[in-house]
Amino acid sequence: MIHPTYQCITVLRCLYQKQFLPEVWKKIELLQSHCEERKGTQKYEQDRVAVAQFIIRFFKLENVFTEEEIMKVCGIVLVNTHEVPLTQPPHIAIYESTSMFEHSCSANCNKSFTNKGGVLITSGSYIKKGENLSICYTDPLWGTPNRRHHLYESKFFWCNCSRCLDPTEFGTYFSSLKCQN
Questions:
Q1: pTM of this prediction?
Q2: Where are the transmembrane segments (predicted)?
Q3: Which of 87, 110, 118, 120 has its CA 20 to 30 A from that of 99?
Q4: Using the 8-state DSSP alphabet, how is residue 33 labeled?
Q5: What is the pLDDT of residues 34-91, one digit of tens each?
Q6: Alpha carbon of 123 to those of 21, 25, 110, 142: distances in Å?
Q7: How far apart are CA 12 and CA 33, in angstroms?
């Protein structure tokens, strides 16, 4: 099990932007937290005890941050971070613009990273003028049930993109089992 101190680092870094970099805090506050959807879930209760209450008690910050404020940032971190596979183990980061891309399991853009941790978005297909830009929020090499479940658990929506709605996954039958006979 991860020690509570480690679970708090990213949340604390975000929270301290309010005091030290208010222009960054304003950007963080605008990101989606899905607080209402998260309430009552096992992950929400774990974060409430292991992160929010731990931050307030251990760091003695009851007069600085409210539990509600901490839980909102926990949600922002859960919903908006991107795994950066440049370190071992990988770390997570929030990229303001990248968080605004819509999701599709057959995205028209790809996300990668520079060796210094910057995010690169490149077109994966021809994009018509006015067409929305999309990236895949989950592993595109997973089958439809796994992708949809992961998106529901981590981003709080059931994906209904064209790939998820096609039982053949564009004729690839990617989620299908091959008959042994």
A1: 0.85
A2: none
A3: 87
A4: -
A5: 999 999 888 899 899 989 999 999 999 989 999 999 999 999 999 999 989 898 888 8
A6: 33, 30, 6, 21
A7: 16
